[in-house]
Amino acid sequence: MPRKDILGAIRKYTDPFRVTNGKAFRLKDFDPGDTLGLKMDKQEAAELLRRGSDWLAMEQDILYAQDSWSVLLVFQAMDAAGKDGTIKHVLSPVNPQGCEVHSFKQPSAEELSHDFLWRYATKAPQRGRIGIFNRSYYEEVLVVRVHQELLKAQKLPPKLVGKDVWDERLADIARFEDYLARQGIVILKFYLNLSRKEQRKRFMERLDKPEKNWKFSASDVRERRYWDDYMQAYDEAIRATASKEAPWFVVPADNKWFTRLVVAAAIVEAVEKLDLKYPKVSPEQKKDLAAARAELETES
Ligand code: ATP
Ligand code: MG
Questions:
Q1: Against a cut of 0.85, is the pTM above it?
Q2: How far is CA 4 from CA 1, 37, 131, 269, in A?
Q3: Could you give the 3-state DSSP secondary structure of residue 220?
Q4: In a designed cystine with 74, which of 56, 113, 189, 216 is the match (CB 3.0 to 4.6 A)?
Q5: Does the CB atom of residue 105 touch ligand 1 within 6 A?
Q6: Mean pLDDT over the full length of the chain
Q7: Phi-psi region at 133: left, alpha or beta (left = phi > 0; alpha = psi -120 to 50)
Q8: 216 C-alpha vs ligand 2 centroid, how far in Å?
Q9: Can you give the CATH number for the domain in which 291 is found?
Q10: Domain count, the chain
Q11: pLDDT per residue as tens digits for the range 74-117
């Protein structure tokens, strides 16, 4: 299949969910149960995903070899939306040496005594690598916004914390992403869009199945009470930070197989668009290679 047609086929999965301009964005326009009318059995979906991921592994090898562009994948979601499983399934065929996952939990005392982007900035991917943020600087305008006592713990000078503090943070994040993009970091942001109903079902499963009990945390159920506040915070975050350089994908998350397909498609599409090639060997390097071959041949 010619490259143009492949990209066209991939776009069918990504166009409906990509947000590059937040102006008219409303989270409620996106259906967590959407599968684009596609019906697939588990095996079929797994096979398609495997092909996408294998392709990504191939592209990643070139990304690593050219040592210039890098990719940052940001994953945000409510609990049980499937961040961990999506990361595992989509990226498992990728060479671990070219790929790193950072999970951001409650900040440490040291992290709290720095500016809010500090701990994330140090983990941005090196050239040639794929960096994955499992939660990210967006928590600073999500959980910290919903639970404002967390902002107090950040010890900002009170004079600098006014009523616009969240808009200012969102503007800082948008600038930070512009900066990273201009450094050659391709940024893709995924919001795994889970419905409240499906979250309840998945929590119930964690309670019902002994092998899933370890995943259950009572505090996750307590966070559900703030569901509407979180949705409001996500809505505003996406609206303020969706851009061409750092698009959001609002990925339907009530069906795991579909979530994974869309995420895989978005990553493949973005890397494919860079149209990367293995580095060309210079005439001098070719001479070196010939000399090396000659030396090896004298050994036999
Ligand atoms: P899992 O899927 O395994 O539950 P998780 O990402 O939910 O993974 P947890 O250890 O359960 O991991 O939760 C991490 C918690 O840290 C989340 O509740 C998140 O909101 C919180 N957190 C992340 N960043 C910050 C931050 N900057 N300030 C305060 N809390 C944060
Ligand atoms: Mg959790």
A1: yes
A2: 8, 24, 27, 11
A3: helix
A4: 189
A5: yes
A6: 95
A7: beta
A8: 8
A9: 3.40.50.300
A10: 1
A11: 999 999 999 999 999 999 989 999 999 999 999 999 999 999 99
